[in-house]
């Protein structure tokens, strides 16, 4: 990996301001291909109005030195993380240069070598020169090169639909690679003023709107680029692309995804757009509770909910709940793809109150399945369970689910009436260990 930092050269060559002929000479010293590559890329812009002001703003020694320092800091730690993604050190160039507003980051080829071009003029314009943003920018472009080296980076874009799928796919893989390299799967440099929370909250709407535009042959440019926005938020496509690739990673390796063809990606995105992420968006719906995912690490906080429901476990298992029953409930999620099974804990003023397990998109993509719902005995008969489930039902149906299903034994004298009161209807009886297992369903009104 070769690192080229031209900041000192920029300061000396353009000490008296920008000149296009001086720039061409400067660019040729980096690569004979670079001047024509940049000028061809920028030919659709009005040079005097769109490009020159950005260049003049960037030609400040103070600004250039700030970017250069942080570039060096990031590069010094870059090799430590490359092994997370690459089997061997990649043979690539990383060049910090003055371009013609060709982009803050550009994964391309120069002189036959894979190259990351970092345009200092755009980095300064976008205020991405700090260490955090610089690291994200470099890792993202390296992600594009990883895709190129390991798969199918360039999909022919001769229709709007193909272009929309290709852009989402390529940016999604680059985002996943960026997360792998930085060790944080929720890092987005765009996350300012609640950007990421907004994306999670509106995820269902975002992915369906993207699909609607693909179907209607409408441009998806609003989802990409700092100069565009979707519902007042820029770069939402990077979030959506990352979530799409993460969805694919439930059943495929990243290298398999990197080699997918358009037809497969198009079909997979339609399936993804039908899959509804509910549990990540429930937190704001329960202001009276603290809502968290229950894992083996924090299970002890919620164990008493299991133990206090002795009647339920005597009916279903023939003995009071054990520690192993609690563990088995959490580990049951391993039987399903990642992101499908959720265990949620509800607490208030440090008191664990309820436990709820849900399966999203099971057994059909538009179905939410309730696995287990328990209220701590101290808080039963206070309408807490009814309030929780009514809120879950409302959120599920408003998110796009058309059906909620569950199973309950007919000798569960408290469970059956509870679900019937909420509107669930018995649809099937099955013999199970000498009891009738009742399948119940609540359908969304149409």
The largest β sheet comes out as: 7 strands, mixed
Helix and strand run: EHHHHHEEEHHHHHHHHEHHHEEEHEHEE
CATH superfamily of the largest domain: Gcn5-related N-acetyltransferase (GNAT)
How many E-type strands?
A: 11
How many DSSP H or I helices? 18
List the strand order in the largest sheet. 5-6-7-8-9-11-10
Count the domains: 3
Rg, Cα atoms, Å? 27 Å
Shape: elongated
Instruction: Specify the CATH architecture of the largest domain.
Output: 3-Layer(aba) Sandwich
Mean pLDDT across every amino acid position:
92
Class by alpha and beta content: alpha/beta
Low-confidence stretches: none
Describe the structure.
This protein has a 7-stranded mixed β-sheet. Strands 1-2-4-3 form a 4-stranded mixed β-sheet. The radius of gyration is 27 Å and the shape is elongated. Helix 17 links the parallel strand 8 and strand 9 (403-409). It folds into 3 domains: 1-150, no CATH class; 155-275, no CATH class; 279-443, 3-Layer(aba) Sandwich (Aminopeptidase). The model has no long low-confidence stretch (mean pLDDT 92). It is α/β, with parallel strands linked by helices. Helix content is 46%, strand content 17%.
């Amino acid at each position: 990996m070769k690192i080229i930092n031209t900041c000192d050269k920029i300061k000396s060559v353009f000490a008296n301001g920008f000149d296009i002929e001086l720039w061409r000479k400067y660019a040729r010293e980096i690569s004979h291909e670079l001047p024509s590559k940049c000028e061809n890329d920028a030919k659709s812009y009005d040079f005097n109005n769109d490009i020159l002001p950005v260049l003049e703003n960037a030609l400040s020694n103070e600004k250039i030195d700030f970017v250069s320092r942080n570039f060096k800091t990031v590069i010094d730690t870059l090799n430590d993380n490359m092994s997370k993604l690459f089997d061997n050190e990649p043979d690539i160039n990383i060049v910090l240069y003055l371009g013609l507003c060709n982009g803050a980051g550009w994964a391309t080829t120069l002189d036959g070598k894979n190259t990351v071009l970092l345009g200092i003029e755009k980095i300064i314009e976008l205020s991405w020169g700090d260490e955090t943003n610089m690291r994200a920018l470099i890792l993202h472009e390296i992600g594009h090169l990883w895709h190129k080296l390991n798969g199918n980076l360039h999909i022919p874009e001769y229709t709007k639909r193909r272009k929309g799928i290709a852009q989402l796919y390529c940016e999604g893989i680059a985002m996943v690679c960026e997360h792998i390299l930085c060790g944080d799967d929720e890092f987005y440099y765009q996350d300012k003023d609640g950007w990421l929370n907004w994306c999670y909250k509106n995820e269902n709407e975002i992915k369906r709107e993207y699909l609607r535009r693909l179907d209607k042959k409408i441009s998806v440019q609003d989802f990409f680029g700092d100069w565009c926005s979707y519902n007042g938020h820029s770069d939402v496509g990077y979030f959506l692309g990352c979530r799409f690739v993460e969805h694919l990673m439930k059943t495929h390796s990243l290298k398999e995804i990197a080699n997918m063809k358009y037809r497969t990606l198009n079909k997979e995105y339609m399936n993804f757009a039908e899959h509804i992420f509910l549990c990540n968006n429930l937190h704001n719906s329960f202001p009276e509770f603290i809502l968290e995912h229950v894992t083996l690490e924090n299970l002890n906080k919620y164990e008493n909910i299991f133990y206090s429901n002795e009647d339920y476990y005597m009916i279903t298992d023939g003995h009071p709940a054990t520690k192993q029953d609690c563990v088995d409930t959490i580990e049951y999620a391993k039987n399903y793809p990642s992101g499908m099974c959720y265990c949620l804990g509800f607490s208030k003023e440090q008191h664990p109150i309820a436990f709820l397990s849900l399966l999203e998109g099971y057994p059909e993509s538009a179905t939410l399945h309730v696995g287990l719902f328990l209220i701590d005995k101290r808080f039963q008969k206070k309408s807490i369970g009814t309030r929780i489930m009514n809120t879950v039902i409302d959120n599920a149906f408003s998110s796009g689910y058309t059906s909620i299903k569950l199973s309950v034994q007919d000798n569960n004298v408290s469970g059956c009436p509870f679900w019937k009161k909420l509107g669930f209807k018995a649809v099937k009886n099955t013999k199970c260990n000498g009891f009738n297992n009742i399948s119940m369903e609540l359908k969304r009104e149409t």
